[in-house]
Amino acid sequence: MQPESQSKTLRGNAGYVPKKQRALILQGGGALGAYEAGVFKALSERLSPLEDDRQEGGKRQHGNLFDIVAGASAGAINAALIVDHVVRNKKWEGASDVLWNFWQEISTPVFWPDNKWFSNGWQFWENARKWQSDFFGKFVLPNLPAGNLREENLFLPYYFLWPDNLGPLASEEAARRYWSWYQFAFMSGGTPHVLSPGIVQPDFRFNNPYNYLVRYSNAPLLMAIKKHWDYEKHSIKTSYDKNEPRLLFVSVDVKDAITATFDSYEKENGVWKTEYAHETAGDSSDDDNDGRKDTHVIEYEQGLGIGHLLTSISSHLRYRPPDLEATTITEEGRDRKSTTLKKKGVRYFWDGFYLSNTPLREVLQSHRDYWHKIRNHANTLSATTAAAISRAKETDAATVPNLEVYIVDLYPTVERDDFPRDPDGVQNRVGDILYHDKTKYDQKIAYLVTDYIDLANKLIRIAIEQAKDRNTAESEIRDFLETADPKSKKRNGKERKYGDLLGGRFDVEKVVRIELAADDKNDIYGKAFDFSSGTIKQLLDKGYSDALRYV
């Protein structure tokens, strides 16, 4: 960070584009967010800020440790605490301590699994299970009738009650974690510093007494956050010209089932807003019915506040879903121009991890949009087309910095232990599959798109160079690039031109994935809810040691 007096002189330098920037992407995972705090501590100690080529008084300006910090759910909390500290203190030093202290503060001792009686009792059960299994294997199993008797209809309901199908007893450490999260999730006291006691919602729609939800309030968590980010006094509103990092939250619009990205950097015309669109297909046989598009615009002139963070950290079990005021622009009919309606209302949101627990796509799109369209004012058609032709002719300078990405993955991709067979193991693996980092496919697609763009640029260059009249050839190519025929749409639902597909591209130079180990034999399904002091300390320490191996 640079002092305010220095950073002011850098404003308005729209022509400058750094060669590379660095992004940190933090997943959601409840209590597993403590692992990210450990990772960030190690990265803070080992990584050096990227150099910034801007000159100030003849001296090179130092860049940020991370230019973009993005997150969903628990990752959004960590991202907010990091950026708030950096902006208010104008330095990165101390940000890792804020995260470390926060996770220690919201952890809590557990009254049962952490005492010697639990340990002694579990050892007794381990010995009893071993004796039972040995006895059945030696004396009962060999004497069962030949054939698959246990899978006959008469005996099949009791299939998992045979001693050799019980499976191994959990380790003492796994049992400690399991009963810790069980205490937090199902006992009357709630989760101290995180969630209120359960709020039961009966089923009055169908009058089914067995169908109900146990909801929660995350007000205790907000109070814990406020100790480190005074969100009532300090919203987060950052600027590249002030050498400040960019903060991104990812949430899910409940009604439209699409992601919304909240951004601490300004958009066009100096406005802070989030804009996203949902399209409904029309009847292709009816020329007058070409579908409907709803564009939602949420403005936040004061910057990102606790209301925006709430949209990213509140699951469907929050007793009242977070909402934000929005302006919805509805376009219907042929080419979306026959009917336009602007209406104010509220949009409801759920936790970002439901759709984008690793928001790499949102980071890449936001990065391109800021530099190509806002920073370098290439949001006009002519500017975009000119940039595309210049790049094809290899005469342009980059309009978007390349990116170096660090991703913290809280859910293991590969199951390195035996195939899960017990109820907790099966549910745990399902959770890992649902929420693990799926961006490797996105990364492959990004590289593939880059290859296609390089191919298109080379073909354009060859066409211009081989043409008898280069000016005519370039004019025809320019007209073609200004054609609006591509099937894909922009993030805000607007039509793309061919020139949009070629302009503003950049390379992802490096992706570093730091993954919470997949070979943890003490892993449990409820790991996201285990806020016990012992588990949080383990996660902090493990995140720190794991990250050191990567950097």
List the helices and strands and how they pair.
Layout: H1 4-7, E1 20-26, H2 33-46, E2 51-56, E3 59-62, E4 68-71, H3 74-89, H4 95-106, H5 116-140, H6 172-186, E5 199-203, E6 208-215, H7 219-226, E7 246-253, E8 258-263, E9 273-280, E10 292-299, H8 306-313, E11 323-332, E12 339-350, H9 360-375, H10 381-392, E13 402-409, H11 423-435, H12 439-466, H13 470-481, H14 498-502, E14 508-515, H15 533-550
Parallel strand pairs: 1-4, 1-13, 4-7, 13-14
Antiparallel strand pairs: 2-3, 5-6, 7-8, 7-12, 9-10, 10-11, 11-12
Helix pairs in contact: 2-4, 2-15, 3-4, 10-12, 10-13, 12-13
Descriptive notes:
This protein is an alpha/beta fold. The chain has two domains: 423 residues, Cytosolic phospholipase A2 catalytic domain; 75 residues, no CATH class. Helix content is 37%, strand content 19%. The protein is built from 15 helices and 14 strands. Strands 1, 4, 7, 8, 9, 10, 11, 12, 13 and 14 form a ten-stranded mixed β-sheet that branches. Strands 2-3 form a two-stranded antiparallel sheet. A two-stranded antiparallel sheet has the order 5-6. β11 and β12 form a beta hairpin. α2 packs parallel to α15 and α12 packs antiparallel against α13. The longest helix has 28 residues. It is globular, with a radius of gyration of 27 Å.
